[in-house]
Design a protein that fits this description.
The chain is mainly alpha-helical. It has one domain. It is built from nine helices and no strands. Helix 3 runs antiparallel to helix 7, helix 6 runs antiparallel to helix 7 and helix 7 packs antiparallel against helix 8. The radius of gyration is 20 Å and the shape is elongated.
């Protein structure tokens, strides 16, 4: 497997993308990967936040129109990410951070698909406990995926330290979100709806 990755990495197109002194090589692929991430992660996170209770006045079903943009971003990331992987395949294939990233992306995509399939099909703005679990899982998975993808440019020590920091940070953020939502949902309706004069 690694020898096949070496052959691909030394092919003409891979050398061009990796080493050519032009904007049409590595910089373009990296920009496409970044824009794909904006759409897939951004929209997926917005859906996840809605399923855990943010912007509860917006009906879940009305968010369905953004789903095609999310999948377009995913396809762009899949294509550009494959190119980025193959131009340095041996390095990425033996890097734990890359496999953590790919696993987290898979979890985020599967759970985002569940949100799209079950939560967005309901005509009401209510969120179920199952929906909240889906939302929290998506948020945590994307936090891990984005951080793990970012640290692939660094050495193993920085990758390990960053992985620990990201998991701790994600847990703290999700705990704060959960506590905030619990406090908001436990306030009397008339108090939440009162406007300061």
């Amino acid at each position: 497997m690694l020898s096949l990755l070496d052959v691909i990495a030394e092919s003409g197109w891979a050398v061009f993308v990796r080493e050519a002194n032009t904007v049409w090589g590595y910089p373009t692929v990296l920009v496409l990967h970044t824009f794909g991430m904006v759409f897939v992660v951004g929209i997926s996170v917005a859906l996840a936040l809605r399923t855990i209770g943010y912007a509860s006045e917006i009906p879940l079903a009305s968010l369905r129109k953004y789903v095609p943009l999310m999948w377009a971003g995913f396809c762009l990331n899949l294509l550009s990410g494959t190119v980025l992987f193959l131009i340095d395949g041996r390095n990425f294939a033996t890097m734990p951070a890359m496999w953590i990233k790919l696993t987290a992306v898979a979890v985020a995509v599967v759970y985002s698909t569940r949100i799209v399939g079950s939560m967005l099909s309901t005509p009401t703005a209510q969120v179920s406990p199952a929906g909240r679990k889906l939302g929290y899982t998506v948020l945590l998975a994307w936090a891990i995926a984005v951080a793990a993808g970012r640290v692939t440019a660094y050495d193993a020590l920085v990758q390990t330290q960053t992985a620990v920091a990201v998991v701790l940070f994600a847990v703290v953020v999700i705990a704060v979100v959960a506590v905030t939502l619990r406090r908001t949902s436990s306030e009397p309706v008339e108090r939440r709806g009162r406007v300061a004069t």
